[in-house]
Amino acid sequence: MAASISPPDHPPSAGAPPNRVLVFDTTLRDGEQAPGCSMTRIQKLRMAQVLQDLGVDIIEAGFPAASDADADAVDAVARATRGVRICALARCQESDIVVAARALQGAAAARIHLFLATSPIHRQHKLRMERAQVLDTAVRAVVRARSLCEDVEFSAEDALRTEPEFLIEVFAAVIAAGARTINVPDTVGYTTPGEIAALFTRLRCEVPGIEKAVLSTHCHDDLGMGVANSLAALEAGARQVECTLNGIGERAGNAALEELVMALRTRADRFGLSTAIDTTRLYGASRTLSATIGLDVARNKAVVGDNAFAHEAGIHQHGVLANRETYEIMRAEDVGFPRTRLVLGRHSGRHALRERIGELGLCCADSDFETVFAAFKTMAERKREVLDADVEALVSGTPVHAGGPWSLAALHVGTYVGGASIASLHLRHSDGREARETATGSGPVHAVTAALVRASGQDLEILELRVRSIGTGAGAQGEAVIRGRHETQEFQGRAASTDIVEAAARAMLEVVNRIERMRLSPPSSLNRSGILSHDHESRSVSLA
Ligand code: KIV
Ligand code: ZN
To answer: Which residue's alpha carbon is at the smallest distance from atom 7 of ligand 1?
Structure first.
């Protein structure tokens, strides 16, 4: 039998102003439950640290009764974190409650989260229980959990499809039994903002004792309304919001933490609510999760997607350059986004090109600009996105990838299904040197990058290698992005080609050349992405 957990150092909302929203993060439980999102104990520990630094109020670390590994992970997170409440999920049954309490023993502040389905469809087909049995089971479980842990949350699973009168009865009973947080999950993402707001308003008016508990919202995203529904519940009086980073979770996922937090912040004029989240850590937290579980963030994802602060249409670009607020309602730096990036493409105009030339530290005389702009337009008609290397090449009049000093004279790649890949290449340096190398790798991209690093003779660690498709159809290009570290500096290369192996080779060559160019002519400054930039007052970048 688990020993009783000492009372938490503060009740869930004690001292919190009425407009303070508690952020209950369930990335490590509801999020982790989703296919492709499972995490090992070590990964959960890393993410728990990220969530703690982000400033969430409660971390739901797992469902200890689900497996020994889950119980272990909750135990590890409970011991490793401080200054944040750690929560474990349990069904309304003795064994689950005891296992959850045991896993939480090392936590400075703990919570047991009980759940039981209340909707007719779940009562009939899953639980095979009458209303009275559900009520009794819930109350007994809360009493038992309270005997082991001071802080108990009760969730009425599928609440949004439950008869409101029954929900009111259950909530009144579990509050009387000692539940301090009452969670109202939209388990199947079925509700709408108007409907959930009406339910929360009704619960606040009609549940006896509701003032003793914190009302919580937990919305799934099956109809794409998870965040909107959560915000509606908050407007109607919820003061805890359950969510996940990047919106991962069962099926279409849970309400996304970063979207909720930025909506509350950006529209403080409307909501008048705040959280304790350090928003400048949102982008990093999102990317850490994405790297941990290997699930990419969609490019157009709100707040943290690659395009969230990118503008392509010429008229938008012009507006943003004149005054950021014309087309941006949040500042990239407020979510920790590396920087506002204008995507250069066929809709881009002169302003955007001039700005990028400046950002890259290139020097382009006014008299040359029209020629460069005309060449840019021609290139933009052919390519979906004009990359930084393309702009450098346009300004210097050098064809892209001939940026040198190293150039690729030959490349041969062989792949053996079920075996290693092998890449042989021949590099030529503008000073007359030649380098030939062969390397094997677990795949063709690996083999090519290994051969290039060796041939360059550089001390280079690859930090990131991303390959993705840009465009659609059989002629779609593959884009490779490689980030590497040389000594203390980071360098990035990007390239696109219909041959993904060639794209990886070109991107790697760009990294190698950026390092080589820096070695030959040390820069006056490095921009935030670590890409070589020069003081454009003084000189143009030499690409050759
Ligand atoms: O969606 C849901 O109903 C849940 C409960 C366990 C809270 O995740
Ligand atoms: Zn859920």
So the answer is: 155
Per-residue pLDDT at 466 exceeds 70: yes
CATH fold of 22-293, please?
Answer: TIM Barrel (3.20.20)
* CA distance linking residue 229 with residue 216, whole number of Å: 12
Region 411-438: what's the mean pLDDT?
90
Query: For 391, phi and psi rounded to 5 degrees?
Result: -65, -45
Contact 191, 229 (CB under 8 A): yes
**Structurally, what CATH architecture does the domain formed by 403-520 represent?**
2-Layer Sandwich (3.30)
Write the pLDDT tens digit of every residue in 359-369.
Answer: 666 667 788 89
Start and end residues for every CATH 3.20.20.70 domain found in the chain? 22-293
Residues with CB under 6 A from ligand 1: 30, 115, 155, 157, 183, 185, 187, 218, 220
Biggest CA-to-CA distance, the chain:
87
* Atom 6 of ligand 1, nearest CA residue: 115
Could you read off the pLDDT of 198-237 as tens digits, one per residue?
999 999 999 999 999 999 999 999 999 999 999 999 999 9
Counting from 1 in the atom list of ligand 1, the atom nearest the Cα of 188 is 1
In this structure, which residue's CA is closest to atom 5 in ligand 1?
157
Q: Tell me how far the alpha carbon of residue 445 lies from the centroid of ligand 2, in angstroms.
A: 39
